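Milestone 3.1: sequence recovery, worked example.
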């Protein structure tokens, strides 16, 4: 059972540094797209209160269990 956060938190986009508002209904495991239209990076919420996000490479969005050790 996910615990819903009680307030809006602000994550930082790992690509462009844009502040991203993460609303209370955004639970851990959700994906958030960067608010910067020129960036459009997807990040996954991995923790709340405090907020934590992790960058999701495009080719991983369909396979969340895949964990490349030495990609790129
Ligand atoms: Zn961004």
């Amino acid at each position: 059972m996910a615990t819903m956060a009680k307030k809006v938190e602000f994550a930082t986009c790992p690509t462009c540094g844009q502040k991203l508002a993460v609303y209370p209904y955004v639970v851990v495991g959700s994906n958030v797209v960067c608010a910067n239209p020129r960036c459009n990076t997807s990040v996954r919420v991995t923790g709340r209160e405090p907020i934590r996000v992790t960058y999701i490479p495009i080719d991983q969005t369909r396979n969340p269990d895949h964990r490349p050790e030495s990609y790129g």
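The chain has a mean pLDDT of 85. Strands lie at 9-12, 19-22, 31-33, 42-47, 52-55.
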